[in-house]
């Protein structure tokens, strides 16, 4: 018996020694890279961009990639399954009129043609229901888009959705009005098949709002979203630019000077009322508007404020601050017996630069930049990208701290693009491009807030974790081996829970070898 007990203890000791030895070997051979602390966000060059022009039929479309890209690359322009053009030269603007009745224009760029790619469409009419200038930046697919502007009771508002990806998208439309959240009979939920586009008259979803904020969000897949508003009683037409997502500080740039109306729209998505502080940035400085320093916004509602007598006289921007997240936009009404309308909205600073693909000058046409530096002084370089001929010399613009500066763009034959790049040492700069034309009985105008150029993607660091789940077709998540996939095309990466130390990062996978569709890969990892 004593011998048996001794043998058992000897066996246990041997097992412990073996385990310690294995642990020592594992510790000694562990890659040092995984032991190092995670660094900050990494800048990764953009190598693929897809943008959609929502309703280009009978409009002028412009597409341009700034010069400087290295290596091969292509940009393809497709509408209705037909390829209109394939571009291979950065720095040269493609600008053509799209035939009437064309479906959404899908602009897809890869390689050197992707970094900084921009596209926009502009429609010009001198009479009829579409009288005026209506322009919009062609947008990339995303999981959430905010739009702020007039509601169906004040305008005919049509929402254009497109799904350029290879996966189905489930879309939900949330509408906030002056009276609170609005839910239509349809429930506001739509399913878009791969490659499908759809135009939705918002009066069928929510007919009553005079003003509204709309969130287009997806529970699966991604879509592009844009809305065109044709004001009632012939008061103009334009597209609603995508607004910056809800935040407690919002900057609305690109507000043109001159006469006409200026109406501020602020939406609160919080469940409590919020008080919004309003400051104007003008060429003379920053100040609170007398008697309009504060705006109370009811919970989950939209509030309006007439600023026509406060900022209409000179180019400006607005800085809004609140205790709860808000989204905001501004309605600009032009002058003349037959006025036109334009919209601007909350925007991000152009830290990586910005490109506007469609501008006109000469004759009765004018294009100008309205640039603002809410904090430190800003400085940018402005470069014209013409459709043809010699480009004017680039020039630099200084924007004093807490001020707005208007910059007229040079006269160029035909349409042209413009590239705006912050100079090293510049403070944050926000801006908009104003384009107008004097036509019979009034001024036609459109405004495009400057959006950050698609040049770099900021990727958060991800460190080693024991919990990794990969799901692919043909396999069961976490059980058994997934279907063999040798390579995948990755389209997007977004954080689903930024407050959590263990974040869930969802990566949409668009294609696998042989063209097989892959729905998604879900990774659970620790992000420092």
N- to C-terminal distance: 56 Å
- Give a short account of the largest sheet: 8 strands, antiparallel
Relative strand content: over 45%
- Global morphology: globular
User: Rg from C-alpha positions?
Assistant: 26 Å
Tally of alpha and pi helices: 3
Strand tally, please? 39
Low-pLDDT windows of residues: 33-37, 468-528
Structural class: mainly beta
> Helical content, roughly?
under 10%
Task: Kindly report the average pLDDT value.
Answer: 84
Explain what you see.
There is one protein chain. It contains 3 helices and 39 strands. Mean pLDDT is 84; it is low at 33-37 and 468-528. The longest helix has 28 residues, at 2-29. With 528 residues, it is mostly beta strands.
Highlighted features:
528 residues, disordered C terminus, mainly beta, six-stranded antiparallel sheet, eight-stranded antiparallel sheet
What would you say about this model in short?
The protein is mainly beta and 528 residues long.
SSE arrangement:
Elements: H1 2-29, H2 32-35, E1 42-45, E2 48-53, E3 60-64, E4 73-79, E5 82-87, E6 94-97, E7 105-111, E8 118-125, E9 132-137, E10 144-150, E11 155-162, E12 169-177, E13 180-182, E14 189-192, E15 197-201, E16 211-220, E17 224-231, E18 237-240, E19 242-243, E20 247-255, E21 262-268, E22 274-282, E23 285-288, E24 294-297, E25 302-306, H3 308-311, E26 316-333, E27 341-345, E28 354-359, E29 365-373, E30 378-386, E31 395-399, E32 403-408, E33 416-422, E34 430-439, E35 442-449, E36 456-459, E37 489-495, E38 502-511, E39 520-526
